[in-house]
Amino acid sequence: xxxxxxxxxxxxxxxxxxxxxxxxxxxxxxxxxxxxxxxxxxxxxxxxxxxxxxxxxxxxxxxxxxxxxxxxxxxxxxxxxxxxxxxxxxxxxxxxxxxxxxxxxxxxxxxxxxxxxxxxxxxxxxxxxxxxxxxxxxxxxxxxxxxxxxxxxxxxxxxxxxxxxxxxxxxxxxxxxxxxxxxxxxxxxxxxxxxxxxxxxxxxxxxxxxxxxxxxxxxxxxxxxxxxxxxxxxxxxxxxxxxxxxxxxxxxxxxxxxxxxxxxxxxxxxxxxxxxxxxxxxxxxxxxxxxxxxxxxxxxxxxxxxxxxxxxxxxxxxxxxxxxxxxxxxxxxxxxxxxxxxxxxxxxxxxxxxxxxxxxxxxxxxxxxxxxxxxxxxxx
Length: 380
Hints:
The protein is mainly alpha-helical and about 375 residues long. Among the domains are: about 45-155, no CATH class; about 190-335, EF-hand (Recoverin, domain 1, Orthogonal Bundle), CATH 1.10.238. It contains 15 helices and 2 strands. Strands 1-2 form a two-stranded antiparallel ribbon. The chain is flat and about 80 Å long. The two termini are about 45 Å apart.
């Protein structure tokens, strides 16, 4: 990718992570009264873990961008060298004033972490200090200067977190689909033969109605983008122009598309399949479909794997033979999200959970799950 705003894989975070500070995580065995809220706390803790170093990351990126020599070396670096952190070796060649600013940033970050850790320890005076989490994005062994290991740790931590975000999203969607199948099977078991047939027929009608839509174009190819050009951009009657199209959707004018700018391109395709309030359309699946399309387009067009699609990368994509083809798109609702064995294991655990809640008096003694009951997946 070209230009000063694109020097580091760290910029994967641009437009994706909230700009806020997280807290160091303190773990301890929950008290009996705390167990009911454990799953809620874990969600907050997870978000704090992901963004705990975000401010520090942005400040380091800004300082590194100010050194033209480092920026030039990075632009010429191989993707594997960036992803692995080997590029951090180039820190040896930055100017003295840049190193001094990085040293100060590191000292400030370590001081912040120390103060937050101390405060958290004081608030939970029963905590064992051995369970205090040490943040992984800073080299704690050297608290005075910003070195190669600091840059490498920051690069690796950012890349790992963003990959983990997508992995978690896919796993959460899988659990959602398992739960949906479980509810359907439980309802079928509760019905007599006649009502079971009626319910199955209704499911078939809803599926047929959901499937009755226009062709879903291959995300990112010419046919799909031309439809955006005509319907969303209101350029019907004008020949598709890649340069103009890119500029129209470069919402912040930085000569790059981030993930949010790319996801807007799929609205028309998603509207073909999903409408809010329609019983046959699952909006959770719509959201997952958008993310799958986003991942696919970045895989094809983001050639330097920095999490952004530059103007140059987009133009190169439009020149490829594949850009002209439209093989269609296999939608998520027609792709299996779990195996039969995985469902049987999920069903076993869910039945055990229901029996436990019945025994605790939190559910009526009924052999089937009540309609609308959605237990938290964290309890599993």
